[in-house]
Amino acid sequence: MVISKKWMLRFCAILYLCVYIIFLYTIQKSGSVQKIWNGYEVLAVPTEISENEVLTLAAQQEISNIISISTQPSLPVSMLAPVQNVDISASLPQSYEIMRSKYFYDQDMCYQLYYIPDRYAAALSKVQLQLEKKTGMTVFTTFQPMKKSYFPAFICSGVFVFLILLGRHKLFLLAGNFLPVLSIFFVPEASNGSAVCLLFYIFYLLQDEWYSKIKLMYFIKNPFAVTLGICSFAVCCFTSVLSSIFFLSTVIAALLSTGFAVSFYKRAVNIFEPIPITESGRYITITTRMILCLTAVCGAIICLYVSDLRTPVSVRPASSVHITIPVPQHTKEISGGFSIDAYMQAVKNIPDERELPALIDYVAWIWNETVFPFRKLGGKYPTWPMADDIISIPTFNIENNRINEQMKTVYIFDQAFLRGLIEPFKGKKTDSIESLLVRQDKFVYTVYASLSTAVSSADTKQSSPAIFAVLISVLTILCIFIVGKRNDRYF
Question: In terms of pTM, does the model score above 0.70?
Fold first, then answer.
């Protein structure tokens, strides 16, 4: 059976629409402003507040698996040599066992840090408020819950209904604008709302040309239609890359749904489609309804712009945060995963001076601790194990009444040894700081960074300038429409 290209395209279009609708239901806008540690949020509490008080309030909110300084298990030691002198890394002032406690304090030692699994992010906000109310001190978190306002969705819905009431081809407008207005209820942002309102108006202008491909091509070459299309996409691009991708997927879904509606309508109703004998002008008459609809779009964008300025993004402004905490530093020189090659890349790119230990320090600690009983006392050995390092010991056996010496391999620093260190922190939920480091899915170095730098970039109103620029463009087009209408002119 041969499947035609037309039916294959229809199947792909239907599949895309289904995937898009499912995607809308999976979107969750509330959450962390910016991820610092993958899989964890950070709670910074003044050192005057006891750790027991913090853990008690967290337990009341059913938060578990908190990584804190009191939950750190002792590092494993060799049963053959429980007391030994492990070499200290040249780039660390102290051993890993001592230095890992720095993960639980800010750089000035004024705040104690707790690492909370991100699945408890919503409950973390309650713990923060309870601590501040009970102690009167300021508590910081990297999780800033978003205030989800449906005001943009209601504004867009009003414009959607208004344009359909004034439109002549209501089926076309309903099919083209239904998915965009639906998307605003799942992503209620002012930037997306402004872009969708412009998309509404573009469909409104297209309603008289939907039956003719030739007239549609003339319309696409119109500078005002192109300007509105560019503005709607630009407002999303200036907000974020994800917003622009989401808007493009919405436009594609709207065009596909419109195509299906037009195709079904043409099959049900015999529509006369004129074919021009000579090339017609590329002009569209300015009507009063066009001016009214564009005025409604301008009013909606003004409301969205004002709401975006007045609505705070997060519960706490970023300017009030003034502490420095440990944050992971990702480098391109280190590949992802925990392979032996990635470990060697991390060792090769060790910073000259470090204040905080990394996962490779833990690996080196365990290796040196494990092989210490099999090394000669007083010998000089490298701090960092290298790939395929072998630890062997002499063994003796009697053969033909003679004592023969043979070297027996005890340990090899290879992928199997490295996997044995990393896998325990992946499988079970542990409260050690190594679990936090393994959750980053690669070897990373840790540095101190300001918490305000980490969370402020997402708190800024990046969409407001873009919405304002779009508003100026639409108002300019509205003025041109009004002048053209008064002079009985066309464009």
Answer: no
